Amino acid sequence: MSNDFKFSVNSIAFDENYQPADSTRATTNFANLARGESRQKNLRNTLTMINNRFNALVNWDNPRADRYSVELEIISVDMDIDNEGKAHTFPTIEVLKTIIVDHKTKQRTEGIVGNNFSSYVRDYDFSVLLLEHNKGKPGFSIPENFGDLHGKLFKRFVNSSTYQQNFAKLPVICLSVSDNKTYHQTENHHPILGVEYLPNETSLTEQYFKKMGLKVRYFMPPHSVAPLAFYFVGDLLNDYTHLELISTISTMESFQKIYRPEIYNANAVAGKVYKPNLKNADHSLTQIVYDREERSQLAIKQGKMAEENFIKPYKAILEQWSANYA
Prior knowledge:
- Strands 1-2-3-4-5-9-8-7-6-10 form a ten-stranded mixed beta sheet.
- The model has no long low-confidence stretch (mean pLDDT about 90).
- It is globular and about 60 Å long.
- It has helices at about 30-35, 40-55, 120-135, 150-160, 160-165, 205-210, 240-260, 260-265, 290-310, 315-325; strands spanning about 5-15, 70-85, 85-100, 105-120, 170-175, 185-190, 195-200, 215-220, 230, 275.
- The protein is α+β, with helices and mostly antiparallel strands and about 325 residues long.
- A hairpin with a 4-residue loop joins strand 3 and strand 4.
- It is built from ten helices and ten strands.
- The chain starts with 5 loop residues before the first strand and ends with a helix.
């Protein structure tokens, strides 16, 4: 029995011709946009939003606000499992990588890897394990060792030679704020990330990502209406260039305007004390078609797929590996 896992990385361009791979989670932001009659229009409009936001934030040496564009690559990470001499592969993680194109200098620069974060094992943890653990019980509790395996798998990938050969810097993942928490504006202000907010309490998502080795800070970028959650490993403010940070802000804020318009396309800007509200009627919709209801149902299906194809058949291997992981 092998005591470690190997990873392989594949990438596909996220452009107006993008077709989701069979192994891609159907709830993933980019896959959700690439389905149905409006798929090409959805993709084109999303990319236009990202580029416009990028140029608005890079307001130096860019008088026409058209100097840059952002290209996106979907990075799929597969894990190879050796089970009694037979090799099996399971799709572990999907993230986005940004590439910054400068049309003035004709340079292409790698941006940030991470951004969006997609994982079948996370679907299993939140949509199968957590639901079953709380079924028929009063109150809400978290299973013992919740998120341990997922966190160790993620850290193993980030520390692997495969990651280091493919990516220059550590990942940054950018998520929506939680509508269960209240955020307080601080005096800290970054020229690109904007004004920092602090949450009133920790969340299950924060604890889950902490097991992946990620810290979190909340910033509301210039001309945004709500803070974003930035999950990172090292030093968010000093490890990345301004253009790298802007590539993440422009990409993920555009996705959030589509998926969380009540928060990120609200008509009022977050105040000094901010409580996100998914029932906020005072917001604008983008011209992009998206089915939020379907997305929540699919998460359960995908969690069950991970259970049947990964958690159950490799239970002994995963438990032994997890116990020995240092």
